[in-house]
Amino acid sequence: MAFIPQQNSSQPIQINDELNQLLDVLPPNICHYIKNHSECNHLIEVVMDLGRLPEARFPEYSVYLGATLISATDLEYTIQKIGAFSSDNRAGIEKTLHRISAIRNRKGSIIGLTCRVGRAVFGTISIIKDLIETGKSILLLGRPGVGKTTALREIARVLADDFHKRVVIIDTSNEIAGDSDVPHSSIGRARRMQVSAPELQHRVMIEAVENHMPEVIVIDEIGTELEALAARTIAERGVQLVGTAHGNEIENLMKNPTLSDLVGGIQSVTLGDEEAKRRGCQKTVLERKAPPTFEIAIEILERQKWNIHQDVACAIDSLLRNRKPNTEIRTVSQNGEVSIDHQKSNDEQLLKTFEHNPFNVVTQPKGWRASGKMVPIPTLESKSVDKLNETLEFDRLLDASWYQFYDKDKEDKMKISGPNGEDLPIHIYPYGIGRFQLEQVIKILRLPIVVTKDLDNADVVIALRSYLKNQSKLRQVAKMRQIPIHGIKSNTVPQITRTLQKLLGINETQVSEIRDLHLFTKGDEDDELEALEEARLAIEQIVLPKCQPVELLPRSAKVRGMQHELIEHYHLHSDSFGEEPNRRLRIYPT
């Protein structure tokens, strides 16, 4: 992770807090304590609750102001000096950005006040100035008090004054431009539309677009479904949006059914069999429903540390697939220098690894293979052995592949390597292969193989050759993850069996004895087993020893298909002939 300093850093940050106007509305004893406090310039808010000590809150701590409890007279003193409270229990001080919020009892009387200091901070958005001038819609996220509204106010001023755009601010609680008919000077040339009641914010948003032809609309605290829909309508009309929403991270919006439309919305989709196999996932998955309303999302982690998602669509798609999206961590130093730390996604990290190691060279083994204790089992010799000995050897190799040596220290048996030195069990990722046949082969032959749906955890990919021709993406991803691909000619039990045997290092020089005819059945029907037993006896007693062709009894198309697979296992050829219902198989010697 490299830090890249931006060449053009902005002017030093300037703060205008107009603190004296707020202190003038507070009771004299509280005002006296705050003025004499050494860090009064860092004050965040003053809390006055009936019957409690007044409290001053700073960024890192809180202190009580004196030893006198707040009385109804103290609350009334402040209420008389500020403007009227709106329906959302908020009021302000004329020509300032300070906000006073009220707490009422069940009768409607005010029993508590939160007096929040409003500061106009200039120079805070140098960290994202390059993103603002792109004209893309920007969504700010972060916990309360981290500076979202302050950044929103500065963005509106820069867009209006520096980029000369028509900017309209939808100021629901008069927190952006102050509680006055004349907007605060901190928003520059931007215009402000006040909202009479919070529940009408979505209407004012649409009214601003229809009546005042803005190029940019600034919205604070998008919190309802109607406001989210209004934001999408505005974005679809080509107007740049800059807003804030409730949530610390972009994942919070994904899980919020009310606001998920801001990032494109989430819907449940049922995939087809082929698509589910291609992805290696369940048939029912979550996907993004539409393009995001906001193209860029910014998570304000701290006042000088922001996490940037420059492509919200890609970020949401990655998160839905449990992958880490591409992000930028931008920080501002004390001298105003901006540094960018690029956070790569999982796929890009894999691609970067592949670029540095294009020939898939494994530089350092892992696990038991790196311990030096593993001794590969020799593969089966190709010299003639009778069927019984080969079957016993086959069983021995499979059993030995699970337990290789005895550790005297731990006094238990450990799994190590298979016949060719691979770690067991082998995890395979099937693509286009019948899962029933695959699991049937593994179960009946007791192979140390596990079928996985996660390509990241796979040791090898097994796919039909016909599918691989048109799946360059699968080949590319497997290459990035350094996973070998084995192609199978047809989706049959003998082909699957041979491929799995090759993965385990078992040379199929002789035809192994069929130990369970259920391997070739699709169920437990007696007629299926009877037909397979007929074909097995014909092969082992007539075709192989006497080299004579044999005709079997007429069977249904389904049963004939099972017989074909059984015959293929013996490396023999067979044909169907005759008319239904007397159509039957003929087995030919090699």
From TrEMBL:
Instruction: Record the organism.
Output: Atelocyanobacterium thalassa (isolate ALOHA)
Asked whether the keyword Glycoprotein is assigned, the reply is no
Q: Which keywords annotate this record?
A: ATP-binding, Nucleotide-binding
Which branch of life, at top level?
Answer: Bacteria
Q: Record's Gene3D superfamilies?
A: P-loop containing nucleotide triphosphate hydrolases
Q: Which residues form the R3H domain?
A: 526-590
Q: Which GO terms describe its molecular function?
A: ATP binding; nucleic acid binding
The name this protein carries in UniProt is: Uncharacterized conserved protein
Q: Entry's InterPro entries?
A: AAA+_ATPase (IPR003593), P-loop_NTPase (IPR027417), PTPase_dom (IPR058670), R3H_AAA (IPR034081), R3H_dom (IPR001374), R3H_dom_sf (IPR036867), Spore_III_AA_AAA+_ATPase (IPR045735)
